[in-house]
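Notes from hallway chat w/ T.B., transcribed later so I don't forget. T.B. wanted the structure written out for a chain they're using in a teaching module, and asked if we could keep both sequence and structure tokens in one place. Agreed to drop them here.
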Amino acid sequence: MTTSGFNDTEPKDRSLGASAAKGAAVTLAGQGLKFFLQFGGIVLLARLLDPTDFGLVAMVVSIVGVGEVLRDFGLSSAAIQAKNLTAQQKSNLFWINTTIGALLAIGCFAAAPLLATFFDEHRIQPIAQVLAITFLLSGITTQFRAGLARGMKFKKLAIADVAAQAIGLAVAIACALNGAGYWSMVVQQVVQSAAILLLCATFSRWLPSLPRRCDGMRALTSFGWNLMGAQLLQYASKNMDSVLIGRQFGAEPLGFYNRASQLVTSPLNQINVPASSVAIPVLSRISEDKIRYDRFIIRGQLCLMSAIVAIFMFIAAHSNAVVETLLGANWSESATFLGILALGATFQAASYATYWVFVSKGKTAALFRYAIISRVITVAILFAGIPWGATGVAVAYAAGLAVIWPLGLLWIHFVTDAPAYKMLTNGARTLVIYGVSAGVGAVTTQALTLERGLELSVGFLVMLASLALTVAVSKSYRSDIRDVIDIVRIIRKRAVK
């Protein structure tokens, strides 16, 4: 039996596994540094700014952030997934993304007064107008990033991401210390976008040629169009919670909600983004080899979920202690939101591998149709939560994530030959095991009535003890742990090399 999807006896598997393992090692190291910076930024800025500052910026980002999906147009994934990509096709994609970014920048600037009216908050207008420039910067960056990912230049991508994050955070902290308030976060986003463009362009060592007609563009844009449609629907449903809270309840409640959301999405993205950047190119290359494909997708899902579900089940079980320890007692209202959103994040993590299947199999049209159905369901659930206030919206958001995970697996079962049932059973086992272990830790610490800092330490140790007991009595979980350990060992070896 093969110990992991990254370690096979066949030469092709070894070669591809080496690329995947090396890419994972580099990207995980980079994302670890990026996570440290981003998470540190959340903590530091929370102690320098107030909830209303975060709420104001969150109002703008929840709406104008949709432009990031439109700006990409799915063309970065189209370039990465394509079996062959000519120099002229790559240049044409660059100009398409740049043009879309410029149009969105103009549109965002012009629509800023409408956003201020929608939220009944005049301070939103200048924020949106300044953030408009990020669309143009990101549009120019898109194909430079895609080229690095397609060439599996993960080290350069990691350096660019970490450096840009560090520069943006340093500027934001400096501004906050000088009393800039919410403008600190606005400037942070602009500086970070400019830095990532400069670094990716430098590392790419590529300049686009002038656009002109060439074969193959229809297939690329068709792939991108369907993926963009799916991502647009996904974005709308994932950010509707912030829009509803900001519109219905104001900037301050949204500020508390936003900090809880950031404590969840920050580690979630730092794990998912590098995992997807490695998994999708590798899976795309072996999409027609069912045995190898199934092995990679199952192990990939297992590794991703083992990391994410363990973290967020623990956070959900000790949300009050996490908020007071990291953000301070003034942010205690965020604790309820954090516990709810952390539970939702575990189901979101389970859905990532489903997305890998859609993209790597080239089934973006099916992904678009699935997104229409699933996102309509989640938005409907969100609106149903409004009568119960911001907490009701948070519960509805988490419930929507729990619903669309099995729906996505059912969908790929019908449109691909991916092992959907195995993905369901493995994922469910992971959710149950870590959920029960975290729950045992929470019950134990509550019974002991410990101080917040001590609660986290004891809760963690109890959770580990519960997992150790599960290893002893569950053969399936022992097999999962062996696979995870083997994959981590391979990644570490590649990192050393």
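Follow-up for T.B.: The chain has 19 helices and no strands. Might be a good example for the class.
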